[in-house]
Amino acid sequence: MKFCYFAVHVEIRFCLIGLVPLFRLNKMQLLICGIILIWFGQNSYSANNPVVLVQPQLASPLLLPYNPTQTTVSLEKPFCVFDTLNPSSNANVDVYVVLSSVASSTFTPWKNYKGTNGGSTGPYRAASFKLPNCASPAKLSDLSIPSKLLSTLNEYLIQIGNNSACVNDPAATDLCNGPLGVGAAYRFKFLLIDGALVKGETSWSEPVFTRQALDPADLDTWIGKRTGSSVVIASVLSSVTFLLLCLLIPMSIYELVHRVKGKWLSGCNHKPQMVETTFTMVIRECHW
């Protein structure tokens, strides 16, 4: 066993530094060397790319008050983050997502949502967008213009977990921005893709928790947490109050009319005047 381990270890070293000519290796040794080289190349991925000491940040609550949701998280796009790496005008940014419990400083890129079971076994590529233009960003004042609101938000923010259709789509083998788990903690990372190469990356974000769903048993179906009997009593009292108001209004009108009429009669004097010698007519004089 020790001899086999030593032989494999020597072959690994020779494969990596190229001291063993290929024609001297048998098929099994060639297979071992191939697997070793592929494994080494994948696991040395992060070490070969400059890491920008910036973490992806949640979108400002002023822009999105209800972020995160139960299945989505909105992040700020990395403005001016990768400028020191001199990216080309065609550079893109890929967003990788992983459950916080399995996040690692090194990982294999290009895995998708299905291949990692939604980030439970490793990071997956959730979204890709053009590198933001640091020199001429969108105007924040455009957020006050309804016709420009959505486009301006898209310039500054990227939403993760907003595409449920790709989860069951057999053709979605590369990029799938599938919904996140409810009440789970996730980490996010930005990768700078320039051409076909990974030119840089950010650090992993701090854990971000999606919202927890409420238990149906805890949902309050009555306004103000009232029971059914209290709602019935409140309804009866409301009806009685309405009837009392219906009686009070006509009584108030009657009382008002009676007072006005009495005032008018109290301001009148009756003075007898002689019109003719045969009879007397009473003329009413009213003083106001």
Automatic annotation (TrEMBL):
The gene is LOC114654691. Keywords: Membrane, Transmembrane, Transmembrane helix. The keyword DNA damage does not apply. The chain crosses the membrane at residues 231-254. The lineage of its organism: Eukaryota, Metazoa, Chordata, Craniata, Vertebrata. GO terms for biological process: urea transport; water transport. GO terms for cellular component: plasma membrane. InterPro entries: Uroplakin-3. It comes from the Eukaryota. This is Uroplakin-3a-like.
